[in-house]
Write a structure and sequence with these properties.
Blueprint: E1 2-8, H1 13-25, E2 31-37, H2 42-48, E3 54-57, E4 62-65, H3 70-80
Parallel strand pairs: 1-2
Antiparallel strand pairs: 1-3, 3-4
Helix pairs in contact: 1-3
């Protein structure tokens, strides 16, 4: 199973929109998405505060910054699988 992270924070309407894109286009039986609040980590906050929401594959440090579309997410999943 492919593991991705959605980096964002509470109260971020763009983060909510990004999460909806992922729900609409991903097979959650094949891809696990961990939603992380960057406010809970000084390191994540320092790296991503001005970029969220960000879809990240941590092992390869591959990131897809917002605004992303379903087709871009699907391409990323194909490349990582």
């Amino acid at each position: 199973m492919l593991h991705l992270q959605l980096l964002g924070t509470l109260g971020c309407h763009l983060c909510d929109a990004a999460e909806q894109v992922l729900l609409d286009c991903l097979d959650l039986n094949a891809v696990q998405v961990e939603v992380l609040d960057i406010a809970e980590s000084d390191d994540l906050l320092a790296c991503f505060a001005m970029r969220i929401p960000v879809l990240r594959h941590a092992p390869s440090d591959t990131c897809l910054d917002w605004p992303f579309q379903a087709s871009q997410v699907e391409n990323l999943v194909r490349q990582l699988s």
